[in-house]
Amino acid sequence: MQEALLTQHPYIKVALPVPLRTLFDYKVPKAIALRHELTPGMRVKVPFGKSSRLGVIVALSETSDWNPDDVKPLTSLHDKQPVITPELMALCEWAARYYHHPIGDVVFHALPVLLRKGENAEFRTENWWFTTTAGQAFEIEQLSRAPRQQDFLKAVQQHPNGLSQQAASVLDLAPAAGKSLEEKGLLRREPRAFNKAGEKHTHQTQVPPTLNLEQASAIDALLDHRHHFHVSLLDGVTGSGKTEVFLRLIEQCIKEDKQVLVMVPEIGLTPQTLKRFEVRFNTDIVLMHSNMNDRERLDAWLLAANGHAKIIIGTRSAVFVPAPKLGLMVIDEEHDASYKQHEKFRYHARDLAMKRAQSLNIPVLLASATPSYESLTNALQKRFSWLKLRQRAGDAHIPKMERVDLRGQTLVHGLSETALTNMKLTLERKEQVLIFLNRRGYAPTLMCHQCGWIATCDHCDVNLTVHKRANKLHCHHCDSQKALIHQCPDCQSEELFTVGEGTEQLETQLNTLFKDTPILRIDRDSTQRKSAMTKLTQKIHEHDQAILIGTQMLAKGHHFPNVTLVIIMDADAGLFSSDFRGMERTAQLITQVSGRAGRAKKPGHVLLQTYHPDHAAIECLCNLGYEHFAMNGLAERKSLSLPPFYHQVIVRAESTSEQEAMQLLNALKNDLTPMLPPDVHMVGPYAAIIVRKAGQHRALISIKSAHRAPLHQVTERMTQWLEQATKQHKIRFAIDVDPLET
Ligand code: ADP
Ligand code: ZN
Ligand code: ZN
After folding, report:
1. Which CATH superfamily is domain 213-389 in?
2. CB 165 within 8 A of CB 222
3. Which of 119, 262, 284, 462 is most buried (CB neighbours < 10 A)?
4. pLDDT digits over 592-640, tens only?
5. Pairing of the two strands 311-314 and 259-263
6. Which residues form a coiled coil (predicted)?
7. Which residue has its alpha carbon closest to ligand 1 atom 23?
8. Ligand 1: which of 244, 275, 541, 592 to mutate, most ligand atoms within 8 Å of CB?
């Protein structure tokens, strides 16, 4: 920075990772200003209270709101280049305003963990092996006396684009052999940026299938809009070839030397997704998800930031990845609730992606077989183009859905006779059965036969789930665990029994019922370890007949070609939920899980077990399908003035004492009601459905309006009020804009 500039901008405004909705002013010491060019987005070390903190410069400023003598100088500059680009800084500032969240927390959320902790934004490199001209022409047979060198050279010869050290290790090639070949002048080494996803060691490029008519017209429409901001909703039944469509679009973007961000809901999806991209694109791909360690994530981030990674596949937080040539964002399974962060900074990655695309003037593609009611409304109102795929791709057909009336039936481990008969027939045909039971663990309740005692969590108002294999009682709300007990703590009776059934129990019971059939359970417990999901998927593909048991993890985009029968154990589970989104979610889950049936050549069949076969919702979903169901649901939401027709904000408060949160919100309501604009409605305060969670008593107020502007103003006022009111108390509050849960 030059001296003239310093007189213009003697101050910087810094975002710090503290829960205060403000920026902090610091002076730029002359010594730093003369040697460095300070720009927004760079990290700085600054004094804060009695210690020092790492912060991010948000703006340079001529003035400070504080007395100049009170403004401290920054301690040191941390970066040569901004780690938050101007584009992303604008997005962060917008998000902080829209979600009423402290800017410092937003900015730090946008950075990989290691950068938050002060790591340098520099590449870690690894060696890549290449053949020299002599090495490429070298006859392998001449090395028959050195088989390790022979293997090494052969492998590198087969990789004209080079072989990474990682890939060499995966192929079990001896490093010493590589060095000997280097000394002989047959190989050379070159350091390159490290990419975890770059483990792949073959560059096979697959020939894509010929598109059907629906796919072809969707891709035509998408290509028309590929150079400007435009949102398309690719609404295609499960297995209709949505992925194939967006692969084509991505192909075109890569040809035009752009970067593409592909967002996926959860890690369970990524092994398969990555594979599909790898066999299609001979280009650099990086992954960003929570199963990677911090260093691997930073490596991926750096490759995206310098434009090297052409395709970035990531979960929610990848929406903040810097990508200088970003030309397209794809949001797969756009209806998935995991795109919304449910704690602290409660943003929705789909909505932020759209905002980001708008400022970059690039297109967004949302894909789903069960679009969210929000996106359907946008499509109906023509804000999005609505591209429909109604046929399954290739030779596959939409599975037939059949209701099984459970009333008065004898059930075996929760399975009806119809279900069991169909399972046997399916397995005899050497096909696979998938059973959907959205409850992990052995049983949701442990009870005493003598006195009726029930095992409950010490910190939450919920029952503890029995996990027999782990020998634990587990709270699925706060994650606390204790050892499984065999004696009632109240009456000392040893007659404890479980009520209800979870996936672990079903697995045990089916193992005795179907002795010779492999039974594979897919839930959060069985996939906790790294690469567990990949191994399970492999096993599923290895066997002909098998029974898969799973929770909602199974609903997420998996492709199991030999599954022909899907059984929904309890279709009623979400039907009577107190949350107005319960129906939407249940229909999405059932449709997605059903969509796992008959995805290849063999026809699929779905059995829905229900005690309410004539319930209008179940009947509609079975006979008319998701779109019809959603249109009815939307009409109902409209008549009840619910989202997406009304916008909603929830103010949440929690405290360790029983009354405080509720008292605080009552006071807030009393103070604000008189100034509430007529088109903003306030409901509450009321207690959360599970009042106590992790030791906190929780209450909330909901405000809604048909218009965003007044809602935003009221929220702003409430936030200020709450910041003042909670200064002296141990009450925490959170603002949840466009909440997905109540
Ligand atoms: P979706 O993403 O809608 O679930 P996919 O793109 O995964 O669907 O396609 C389902 C299956 O059909 C995949 O195995 C895919 O390779 C195949 N497929 C997609 N399009 C075609 C096509 N036009 N012809 C033949 N097979 C196709
Ligand atoms: Zn007892
Ligand atoms: Zn708990």
Report:
1. P-loop containing nucleotide triphosphate hydrolases (3.40.50.300)
2. no
3. 262
4. 988 888 777 788 899 999 999 999 989 999 999 999 999 999 999 999 9
5. parallel
6. none
7. 211
8. 244
